[in-house]
Amino acid sequence: MAIPRLTDTERDEALGKLPGWALSEDGLAIEIELEFGDFNAAFGFMARVALYADKADHHPEWFNVYNKVRIRLTTHDAGGLSRRDVAMAQFIDGIV
Ligand SMILES: C[C@H](O)[C@H](O)[C@H]1CNC2=NC(N)=NC(=O)C2=N1
């Protein structure tokens, strides 16, 4: 079976512990925009997230311009948010 979507209660509880992250307009993802000192720092961050993503087999949707990285986390297999997105957001919060 595919990984289950979070219930609305689980989602709200998780978001409460992830300051800076917001629910997407469609309600299917959590999003954040991060700013770094320069491109080198932004890309170094992305490399660390990429290693996590590869290991966890869970991948961010993201967009980078110079020192900014916009990230959207959702679970395609669940059609919305799952605990994998929360785990990845926690990992990201831990390295910024
Ligand atoms: C086959 C592979 O395990 C799946 O496609 C994984 C890969 N990475 C993924 N990443 C994300 N964000 N959501 C998924 O459902 C997902 N599924």
- Radius of gyration, taken over Cα atoms and rounded to an integer in Å: 13 Å
Note poorly predicted spans.
none
The structural class is alpha+beta
Helix and strand element order: HEEHEEH
Reported for the largest beta sheet, the result is: 4 strands, antiparallel
Bound molecules: the ligand C[C@H](O)[C@H](O)[C@H]1CNC2=NC(N)=NC(=O)C2=N1
Oligomer: single chain
Strand order of the largest sheet: 1-2-4-3
EC number: 4.2.1.96
Enzyme class: lyase
InterPro entries: PCD_sf (IPR036428), Pterin_deHydtase (IPR001533)
GO molecular function, one term: 4-alpha-hydroxytetrahydrobiopterin dehydratase activity
Notes on the structure:
- The chain is of the alpha+beta class and 96 residues long.
- 42% of the residues lie in helices and 20% in strands.
- It is built from three helices and four strands, in the order αββαββα.
- It has helices spanning 8-16, 39-56, 83-95, and strands spanning 22-23, 30-35, 61-65, 68-73.
- A four-stranded antiparallel beta sheet has the order 1-2-4-3, with helices on one face.
- β1 and β2 form a beta hairpin.
- α2 (39-56) packs antiparallel against α3 (83-95).
- The longest helix is centred in the middle third of the chain and has 18 residues, at 39-56.
- The radius of gyration is 13 Å and the shape is globular.
- It starts with 7 loop residues before the first helix and ends with a helix.
- The mean pLDDT is 97.
- The structure holds ligand H2B.
- The ligand C[C@H](O)[C@H](O)[C@H]1CNC2=NC(N)=NC(=O)C2=N1 is lined by residues 57-59, 75-77.
- It catalyses: (4aS,6R)-4a-hydroxy-L-erythro-5,6,7,8-tetrahydrobiopterin = (6R)-L-erythro-6,7-dihydrobiopterin + H2O.
- It is an enzyme of class 4 (lyase).
- Keywords: Lyase.
